[in-house]
Design a protein that fits this description.
This protein has about 290 residues and is of the alpha+beta class. The protein is built from 11 helices and 7 strands. The chain has 2 domains: about 180 residues, Roll (Endonuclease I-creI); about 80 residues, no CATH class. A 4-stranded antiparallel β-sheet has the order 4-5-7-6. Strands 1-3-2 form a 3-stranded antiparallel β-sheet, with helices on one face. It is rod-shaped and about 110 Å long.
């Protein structure tokens, strides 16, 4: 099962305790599924088609809790896959009026519920082991603005792109996705996501450190080989013994200890010298080798 499916299954089991929150989630479920409520003026049985069985089942639960449309009937009588049969025209008109209201998402708790419904209907989130990506596909710029405003209310920065004539609100930063999961009250998914994110970042940090140390070792080995070649060239010169004692001393130590660091070479000198002193003497040897 994908991580997104796990998140949606958790959210499908969570329902706000207040009717206003239930209405907010119900409104988002219907709006972001791309479903339209029937106008109730036809003789056909009112039916709405949602994204999938998960969203239609959650929609059924919310309708029972908020409007008691189904009068304790068996869900199987009204649910058929992604399709959900509604009650009569009176219930339908009442439902349409309530879900069109602008006051549904004035409170923070209702904003959480609305975001939860929108994600259930048209959202996705990638597996944190692979990448950081959270998105909700919106039918137009207006519905995208609602989602962005809700996320902004909770200090979550989101971007927006156009994809196949749909406005897509997205989040690419791992910590912000964790915050979004928390806003929707997907607490189990949040912990799983955070744990995976921490492990991934630890692995990446370790890999960067290993790569850096490997690169440094490579540079050290290359420099040591070059220094050794220069020293051998200088030692073969007739006037090598006329060079200052310190230069000859560092030349002998480098040949004897080719893997030693500059600090270690300096500590072996008599008297001991610092890294800058060792580096100065080795550069002097290199200059002599290049001139010779």
């Amino acid at each position: 099962m994908s991580f997104a499916k796990e998140v949606k299954e958790e959210l499908s089991r969570h329902t706000g305790s207040s009717r206003h929150c239930q209405l907010a989630e119900l409104a988002a479920l219907i709006a972001y599924s791309g479903a339209k409520l029937p106008d109730g003026n036809t003789e056909d049985e009112p039916v709405i088609e949602l994204e999938n069985e998960l969203t239609s089942g959650k929609c059924f639960t919310l309708l029972v809790k908020t409007f008691n449309i189904f009068k304790n009937a068996d869900a199987g009588q009204y649910l058929s896959g992604s399709k959900l049969k509604l009650g009569g025209p009176d219930e339908l008109r009442m439902l349409s009026q309530v879900l069109d209201s602008d006051v549904l998402i004035q409170k923070s708790c209702c904003m959480r519920a609305y975001l939860r419904g929108a994600f259930l209907a048209a959202g996705s989130v990638s597996d944190p082991d692979k990448s950081y990506h959270f998105e909700i596909v919106c039918r137009d710029a207006g519905s995208a603005a609602v989602i962005k405003d809700i996320l902004k209310h909770f200090d979550i920065k989101a971007g927006e792109i156009i994809r196949k004539n749909h406005n897509v609100v997205y989040i690419k930063e791992g910590a912000a996705i964790v915050d979004a999961l928390g806003v929707m009250e997907a607490h189990v998914a949040l912990m799983d996501y955070e744990n995976a994110r921490i492990l991934k970042e630890m692995r990446n940090s370790l890999n960067r450190r290993v790569n850096c140390e490997t690169a440094n070792i490579g540079k050290t080995v290359t420099a040591s080989v070059k220094q050794t070649d220069d020293i051998k060239k200088v030692m073969a010169m007739p006037d090598y013994r006329q060079l200052p004692y310190g230069i000859r001393q560092i030349a002998d130590l480098r040949l004897k200890y080719p893997d030693a660091s500059l600090k270690e070479l300096g500590e072996m000198c008599d008297p001991p010298i610092g890294k800058s002193g060792v580096n100065h003497r080795l550069r002097k040897l290199s200059d002599i080798a290049n001139k010779g």
